[in-house]
Amino acid sequence: MPALNRTGNVLDEVSDAIDHVNVLKGKLVEEQPEPEAPAPKDKDSFRQYDTACERVKAFYKEQHEKQTVAFNIKSRVDFKSRKRARMGIWQAMEMLNTLVDDSDPDTDLTQLDHLLQTAEAIRRDGKPEWMQVTGLIHDLGKLLYFFDSEGQWDVVGDTFVVGCAFSDKNIYPETFAGNPDTYDAVYATKYGIYEPHCGLDNVMISWGHDEYLYHVVKDQCTLPVEALAMIRYHSFYPWHREGAYAHLTNAKDIQALNAVREFNPYDLYSKCDQPLVAEELRPYYENLIAKFFPPELDW
Q: For position 51, what pLDDT does the model report?
């Protein structure tokens, strides 16, 4: 396993700010009720929307300029070409737990707290075991920051399709002006390198923690397709919130969309300052993990 030669504080701060903007944007699917959670923070108590936007705009400018087709092809080739680590799910959670932001006034919680709070909110609502496990692991792709990411921009942030025209429903769409694919004769067209309604399984989603974890677990678990959709698309806000890229989706993606919309409130709204005792919950969740995962996975 590689040594942790990066601090997670800065990444976690940016990741929390991105989530904060998505909370305050206030356009999550309204028909989905927010899950119950112990002493949740009122959404109005978070930092103001305009301030949060300023914090993340520079991040998105860099992300939108660098997430090219060439970079995404290279990232997938690199993923398949080597093994970064071999470890179990709980061990990966403990590794991710070194990501903590001491400067964020919204929460003093660790990454492990967030994963457990998400899973526990899903559990309280009586959702199936596979969905509880999905909540528990959904952010483990952020380990990419410790392995071989080029920065924060290829780990966190809202995701989008590369290889066709960038949607104006992406956050800060004007910042794609710095991406060379914007001016490519093929990539800048509506369909780009894709066929109409080819399905999201056949498009490249911008590389980051969602896409990385999806590729890690899809052949190393027995989770249902709905769980894999929750993992792969939970940051794909232009699609599941704003309705972009409908010209690329097919009938199968409707099932995925419903799953992601069911999951998303648990990710955003389960955060609160009441920490859970990980060691008390560990036996329950290790039992669930064993139902869907082998003792160790290749990362």
A: 61
